[in-house]
Methyltransferase family protein
Amino acid sequence: MSFDVAADAYDGFMGRYSRLLSSQMVDLASVCAGQRILDVGCGTGALTSELVARFGPAAVAAVDPSEPFVAATRERHPGVDVRRSVAEQLPFPDSAFDATLAQLVVHFMKDPVAGLTEMGRVTRRDGVVAACVWDHGGGEGPLRIFWDAARTLNPEIDDESHLPGARKGHLAELLEAAGLREIEATALSVTLEHPTFDAWWEPFTRGVGPAGAYLASLDADQGTRLREDCRRRVPSEPFTVTAIAWAARGLA
């Protein structure tokens, strides 16, 4: 699995969905003007963009372990404090932020409880820590067509369904294990229209994340079989994909 890819590769793959989540995440965290906010696992800046649009660059900081993503977010958002860092070792002092958010990243943390604990550490007392993760466990994530077809090709495949937070209720359990208080869980929903099958399929070929890595591991014949199985599964063009993300918030 790799996120050391060009920013536009991620934008075209998962960014097209994550942008639709961002306003919902900011609303979930109840972020207000005048507060200081940290975006953990900012990727190419979908959530960062929403935060900057609402509160200005001086109010926002962001971290990500991927150097290409950090570079892209810095370029796109001058004035935002963007640093290269993993969630488990955030480069900020205790209580530095009023709210700390993680959009579509908890399931990729090496130690989700440690990452969420760090998010709580850098958030002031009674500040909000919020996160969301696609419903890969319940089969309602944005990649379900791809993974359903991939399981037909290889029933033993690791299809992201067992990642941390990807099943209902687990994200809230992780926040509780990280010592957060007054935890509330909910579900967020996004819908994206794809004009053609090829427009939907092409981003999978860019090697982004587990799905891109799996496709890249196949030989030419297997890749063709997977693509054509996916084609049979999609509705008539244009078609929409509705995806669910599990979300939770707690107090530091």
